[in-house]
């Protein structure tokens, strides 16, 4: 695994736990973790449960005892590492966004396609697909329970940088992060809604805004902790918020919003889907619930049903606790790792694929271009997914 | 009062009730109701409590015992009646939308301005401003409790025409209704959010869609009742749904959606406002509640507070029941009439003014134009409101 | 009508409105209102819409232009007025509780039975039966949708006397009010749950408590307004809270709680019913909603369905607004009056009957006796209802 | 660890995870797991991560490489194992209920007190105290934020045995389980509410019921899986539901209900506390939320605040994910183990103590005795807790 910050901790818990809850054709050994600073990486290895440490990711590719590379480092490093790892015959799990640019993502897809021919597999880490309520949503839509989809309404709302004195961390710098709210969290709702609907955006019109134009420079690599770190300010070069509307190829209308300035919303991924036969509503802040409206029910007793997604009949839940005993955020990663290991063991390409990651990247680029050009419509190419969809 | 359908019934209950709950400088007498069909209008007069009947609205203008004209007929009749009534020296309450076109609305504003000089007053019926939770929202924003406004998120979701066999009623015909979801319900969220924020939209980019292109012709004036009325179909000439994004003059981003195809959402007017210091959230399906986030509170106990807007300290509530005893939809009209009568008694221009109605019409027109032109940005003129804002 | 305080205002709005929304065999004329103080009563008559004024309730009984007596005065006056009115051949609507004691209630039932033989009818005003969500609950249980009822869980939570300086108003004096939370609000949940279940309590075990033993005497008849009215304190002689558990004759267990000390709960009537086939949940603070669990549904999509009780298929709703347009507290009274007028017009005995009122009184008395005697079990007589149940 | 069913799996995940998230003075090694059947236990050891296997719990006590015994077997085995383990100088974590009878629990307390003098420590596993929202509740009450406590309202609602064909598993047999809903889930709400309030029940009056008197015998040890296992039926010897009301020593009234027959409620632990200054409400089905009412706030903006208990300022949360990223059921065990290891490392007695477990057992016994004796009041002894309370 490369990287040991927030995503590294979440992935490690998943690697440690997957085999204890799921029957898998292969078990994972947590062989090595890689970071630039040896001392810090050794501490992380001890804390997170990795057997050895490397300080250059290239060293991982040379080791025979490593078969899977899990890339949790910032977006500007993904392309180089992933392409090299695939070339070295290592399976790759790459955190989203796949890359910071469409061009990089295209190179990664090419590498993935070449590797795939050799049985070397790749996956991009849109973990929210494995939140059981979202996996269930996909199943219900695929079964036709909602009929023809007319509306997709999705918001990813956070508030962690409302304070204008919050420092200029790497996620607020375009050269490291690619974009702001758009790529960091907008990417998740683009992927999750396309996954649920089983369809792709055909075009978009967007707006972006940076509310706080300058922020204090962090004195050290201060991570996510708030507080003015310095008297010197630097320019925020990414968006604080991105809004867009669009059309899906199947005819549905989409309304999307990603922002880090929605006070009081901490990690509110809110998705609503309206179809000709029914509707779905989800909010990650109540991630064990799915609200389903069956439009064919009697008006006398119809309405949104709050499904507590903790039954053994629900995706992934049979491996956990009895009904009513909730699961949490990190379980989405445990499911991701369990599915990845199952697919690798069974010789199947995992999803979402790098092609799926590229397609999301294209949507994000189209939104950015529309926003830069008077919100004018940006048509999107239809991407033939390699192996996506449930 | 002209018209006796849904709006007519709601207004009549308001005219009957306002004086029983509010201390008003003047009491209203419900003198005459007007409709084209004498028999039906007489039945309506009896049912709704009006003392006499007219079948030509011009007759109302000639009567000395009538001082206020309440226009509840379809949008294509508003301009002619309102302009004539103002010219005849009658105060006018006109249901929204003010008119079906910007041009008509401009003529009405001119008439209102001329009349105002003579002490003849006018008001447009955006009743949701008088839902106490919305009136309270305006108060909290005006007091600066939310700080600088960054996000406005508004949806008006209904589902009453999802059934493709629902007939082609007048609200689905452009020549009568002007537009579909956009003007009928989109108008309400444009007005309500601008009212709450105390600001205007500066530009928009929009999309509209008609999901069901043809519908059975109604055999008679079948109103809102569902069911295939005829084998012959006619073209639906209005939008089923309208989405748009925009910017307010003060810098806030806006995301709007109006649809009649959101299965399971019956009259869901959902408004969220995020500011630098706090947030508000409202859903008309729980119209007695307002959810307020105070961003200055301690993280340990912070969160959205569910305010049950039934305290005597809340707008209009002192006139109703003890705390926790809810009020309903029609109370918004009772408040509207009470305020109108108070303003007329006190010699004050009521709000929202015809200017406010025109400004909303301009927003709707800009959305329609953007939608027709590849979602490209439409800048809006800044309208100096005659007398708007709380 | 006798009395013009909170209940008088609610009843008056109902008398004024019922005929405008419901097709009734007879229309009501609001002939006279009665209060002890002439000036105050005349003001109330003007405000509430009554045509004349009396200062002695006996005068009402002598008037030929009055056919119905609506008793909204405190509980200690009910028996005398109701018995005299029935004897005078007037139909009687009596606010709950029917009386302050079982003995009085028994006399009233005897009077009602005698009058009934003459076609003179009587009704006790448990208005919450006519909240549509509760009426619908009764219908669903009666249809067997919940199967055999196992649990009844009901709370009536208020907080208006938490402040120890709130004055000693008549509702806190045993000689006027009979009891405190038990009779005032506990009576409502006893009636509502028995009505929904279609069954009676067979026995109870209870606890009561008076948290604040002394309060300032009100300087005048200060009504419900808070604030220390006097330096002199008097003893609170009623319960602040009453809890009890019990068994229904059909085997269900019941858990009940009525309190005026539940901070933040304003008028929270919360009812849950669990049966062998399903469950219901209701909270008056969201009175337009009913939550229904269908235990026969698939675990994959099962859960509580939030029914927005505003469809034309729902009880009383066809007379009001389109779906999603909420109604309020006072509508329960409008429904009560509409049903009463319909029953009188059709020559039918209205419900709930005085027998129903007596039975509730017996439950309250049993709770009080159990609470006074170490919570020991109090068996209840089975009352054969004259005409109760829908 | 002894036992490897539901509790065994939950505890194992906690033992595996605690050190990866919390900075602990000592790390745990998962040395041995014990079960009667060697094959099944070996499978469990592999699945759950234990290094070795024993089939007789006495063997664990003889091993020098074991310092802590974690008892997850049924209640009728707790006393013997715990007493022997403490005598052998092993620290003991014993799942709740502490024992099946007060007599056994008293012996265990005596053993714990003796061992404590030797530095051998003990803890009873009321894991819900370590759900962060409940830990936070305790903190807020202890700080006086709710003032004087007046009402405690607690329900533990499940529905897993509603089906009359669900088999007669050990939890439905008095000789194994001691009692039914009362001891299994009622114990949790007794402990949790006493913990939050920092007070003990002084007396109770109760009711219990067994709705389904006979059930099919399980053909094998069929665990919790539903379905008729046999044509032969056996008597259910425990309660299906238990209700009780009571008084706390500090004057608060308590209302409690534990049932396995609340259709649609899967693991609904609902707790409400009303005090003179504020209120708290919690539902385990939304376990990351706490609803707090501050009675000192302005009526204009007062109400229940939904605290999303995922901030670094909240108990245990700094060790997990960023705000808005939820945790799940098993995290309560991870917190329990982390606190236990910290206490052992720091030479401190952990809580809840065996004395706390005994006191809960006494409440349960008093409820059962009251229920058996006409609900008459049962006074409770005041137990001086050894080391309880935060």
TrEMBL record, chains A, B, C, D:
<dbReference type="InterPro" id="IPR000683">
    <property type="entry name" value="Gfo/Idh/MocA-like_OxRdtase_N"/>
</dbReference>
<protein>
    <submittedName>
        <fullName>Gfo/Idh/MocA family oxidoreductase</fullName>
    </submittedName>
</protein>
<dbReference type="InterPro" id="IPR055170">
    <property type="entry name" value="GFO_IDH_MocA-like_dom"/>
</dbReference>
<feature type="domain" description="Gfo/Idh/MocA-like oxidoreductase N-terminal">
    <location>
        <begin position="1"/>
        <end position="117"/>
    </location>
</feature>
<keyword id="KW-0560">Oxidoreductase</keyword>
<dbReference type="Pfam" id="PF22725">
    <property type="entry name" value="GFO_IDH_MocA_C3"/>
</dbReference>
<dbReference type="GO" id="GO:0000166">
    <property type="term" value="F:nucleotide binding"/>
</dbReference>
<dbReference type="InterPro" id="IPR036291">
    <property type="entry name" value="NAD(P)-bd_dom_sf"/>
</dbReference>
<dbReference type="Pfam" id="PF01408">
    <property type="entry name" value="GFO_IDH_MocA"/>
</dbReference>
<dbReference type="InterPro" id="IPR050463">
    <property type="entry name" value="Gfo/Idh/MocA_oxidrdct_glycsds"/>
</dbReference>
<dbReference type="GO" id="GO:0016491">
    <property type="term" value="F:oxidoreductase activity"/>
</dbReference>
<feature type="domain" description="GFO/IDH/MocA-like oxidoreductase">
    <location>
        <begin position="138"/>
        <end position="280"/>
    </location>
</feature>
